[in-house]
Amino acid sequence: MRLLLGLLILCWSLCSCLEWPGDPQLTWVSIPAGTFQMGCVPQDEACYSDESPRHSVTVSAFKMTETEITQHQYYAVTGERPSYFSDCGGDCPVEQVNWNEAKAFCEEVGGRLPTEAEWEYAARTGTTTIYYCGDEASCLNSIICQNIDSTCPVGQKTANDFGLYDMLGNVWEWGEDCWHSTHDSAPGTSGVWADGDCSTRVLRGGWNNYDFRYVRASSRSRNFPDSTAYYYGFRCARANGDTSDRNAGADEDITDVDNTDRETMTFWTDSTSGLTWQNPPDENTMNWQEAMDYCTGLSLENSGWRLPTITELRSLIRGCKAIETDGSCNINVEDCLASSCRDSACDGCSNGDDSAAGCYWLSNLEGACSWYWSSSPLDNDEYRAWVVDFSGGVSHLGKVDSAIYVRCVR
């Protein structure tokens, strides 16, 4: 009997090792920088007071795990199986994990918990609807698991436009931020909001309880850092370009395209920033609202397109000095002349004639070197957007009805 028991234990142990390999195989998805409106959207009548006021947040580029951390991934790093729904399997989200444990896991794999602003930005992907799939709850059928008796395997539903799965439903996801009862005085950037009630931490995304009010993109919750529940899970984030983790698995970095094919390109990716840029639509100009609608409606190589920020636009232009080796072309990017902006780098630069030198598009990106709309809105009804004027290298106010060039980014 003892021998039989020993064999059974050995068999169970071997099976466990096969079922739970040691590599968590995390997939990191690049999330581009951008600006969005965080909080309750005007058409949402189900909002709680903690989702207001709606406010503008500028988000730096970062990376996020493609799915919620799974039971398999959590065990591979920690050797623990805390989940209530263990029978769901290794591909189901780990739950019954508190904030401290979630934070420790993310740090162990070279990441961190996402901030609340990062989480909502990544969930919305540029949408301004109640759910990121639309305003009607019926759209949730395609993006969330609706099994009240258990969690569901991750990645089974449709991903959002950033390529992230299960951002709504399955389990509530821990965030780094301390709790605030409203968005009053919320920062305008995507860093951690660390003051406030740090005895409780933020949770986002909702779970499978059939109450659609809790799976809205702006819905928020909180609990104590040592609290666990069978509907508390998490995913990790990290800085864009950070590859320091020892268990990164398959990384989803976007790579630069071959510039020799530029005549047939309709978009180009900057491998440094991870941003993908669309070449302008036949050099056409349009007003600000038309530009906003054009970019958000663009389906070129998937969706998720938007108007760029000022900083993003300015990062595209380069002065001749950046590629000169003899030092004879001392042109600062701030002094670029529109008339001398070239799509080939610095023809005539070496002759020392500043007026002939000028600037060029980064990696020969096509398009006029002129004014371009950016996404930054203002409170004034007449002047509601900034434009970047490459002829002077500075930003200006632009009237909403002006005809300005547009270049989309994602």
Any idea what the radius of gyration is?
24 Å
Strand content: 15-25%
Give the biggest sheet.
4 strands, mixed
Q: Looking at the structure, what is the overall shape?
A: globular
Instruction: Give the rounded overall mean pLDDT.
Output: 75
Name the CATH superfamily assignment of the largest domain.
paralog of FGE (formylglycine-generating enzyme)
- Runs in which pLDDT lies below 50 for 5 or more consecutive residues are 7-21, 242-265, 318-360
Order of helices and strands: HEEEEHHHEEEEEEEEHHEHEEEEE
CATH topology tier name of the largest domain: paralog of FGE (formylglycine-generating enzyme)
Q: Which strands sit side by side, in order, in the main sheet?
A: 7-6-5-8
Number of strands: 18
Structure class:
alpha+beta
Number of helical segments with 4 or more residues: 7
- The rounded distance between the terminal residues' Cα atoms is 64 Å
Helix content: 10-25%
CATH class assignment of the largest domain: Alpha Beta
Give the total of domains.
Answer: 2
CATH architecture designation of the largest domain: Alpha-Beta Complex
